[in-house]
Design goal:
By secondary structure, the chain is mainly alpha-helical. The protein contains 12 helices and no strands. Among the domains are: about 80 residues, Serine Threonine Protein Phosphatase 5, Tetratricopeptide repeat, CATH 1.25.40; about 120 residues, Serine Threonine Protein Phosphatase 5, Tetratricopeptide repeat, CATH 1.25.40. Helices cover about 70% and strands about 0% of the residues.
Length: about 290
């Protein structure tokens, strides 16, 4: 009896220890299930710490498993922002477009559309390269401006559009100037005219206007060149190129004077300083 009374407390103690150990192990093995809001808060914290990959993982869970939750649009937007912050602009564009397409009634759509345009803005290359993304950026930013004219980001979007249009105008100007060097003045005029019609408010419009005058002079179209000089003075009265245009105008006056003073029936032929290939045999008439 005495031996039983000694052993019994030992087994009781052992049983209690085993139960406590099993309980602790069970607690440690249980994975905490986060609500969508808690998971979003965790993702936002990681995003703020620039842990974009981890933030993307958490946000992807929300967009896949909790697409109907109240924070689904916020998660989708932040997912795009995380991609954007990593420089993954095409993936970011996909995420922003997904928000616009799948959650059109969300209050976050205007900002998502602006960021969609900014993704393509970031992908826009140097003027010398293909400008497909430049055109897409302009289209998306212009759509944002038209859809949400009172949005606080409209001024910034318009500034970006102007910058992108400058890039396209500069690309066309470089092509026009190349044709001028090649003495293909007809082709140069096509590009100068395109700039003046499509990008008339660009920062290089006055350069294109001056180039057009030079091309017309090179083709001996002096009356048309004189009209362009007048247009230049009206459109760009403060341009730094105005003194050069005045010199071109003086040149036009000299050429017209010589042409008008030539004897009747005789062509006043003179090589134009801008037309290095000029000769009576190959003079290019309009």
């Amino acid at each position: 009896m005495k031996r039983i009374s000694i052993v019994l407390p030992f087994f009781i103690s052992l049983s209690i220890s085993f139960w406590l150990f099993s309980g602790c192990a069970s607690t440690r093995g249980t994975k905490t299930v986060l609500t969508p809001e808690e998971r979003f808060a965790l993702a936002k914290a990681k995003f703020d710490k620039h842990d974009y990959l981890e933030a993307i993982d958490e946000l992807s869970v929300i967009t896949l498993q909790y697409a109907g939750s109240t924070i689904a649009d916020s998660a989708q937007l932040l997912l795009g922002e995380a991609r954007y912050a990593r420089g993954e602009y095409l993936l970011a564009a996909y995420e922003f477009e997904k928000l616009i397409r799948n959650m059109p009634s969300s209050s976050l759509v205007p900002y998502a559309r602006y960021k969609l345009g900014m993704c393509y803005y970031e992908l826009s290359p140097k003027p010398e390269l293909d400008q497909t993304y430049t055109y897409k950026a302009i289209d998306e930013l212009q759509t944002f401006v038209e859809y949400y004219p009172t949005n606080e980001l409209v001024a910034e979007a318009e500034r970006r559009i102007h910058e992108l249009n400058n890039k396209l105008a500069l690309k066309n100007l470089k092509i026009a100037e190349l044709y001028m060097k090649m003495e293909d003045y007809k082709a140069a005029l096509i590009y100068f005219d395109h700039i003046l019609e499509r990008y008339h408010d660009s920062d290089v419009a006055d350069r294109a206007a001056k180039g057009k005058i030079e091309a017309l002079i090179a083709r001996r179209q002096y009356d048309a060149a004189r009209q362009e000089v007048q247009h230049f003075r009206e459109r760009y009265p403060t341009s730094s190129l105005l003194p050069e245009v005045d010199k071109l105008n003086a040149q036009i006056d000299r050429e017209l004077l010589q042409r008008n003073s030539a004897p009747s029936g005789q062509s006043a032929i003179k090589a134009n300083p801008l037309d290095k290939s000029f000769s009576p045999a190959n003079d290019e008439k309009p």
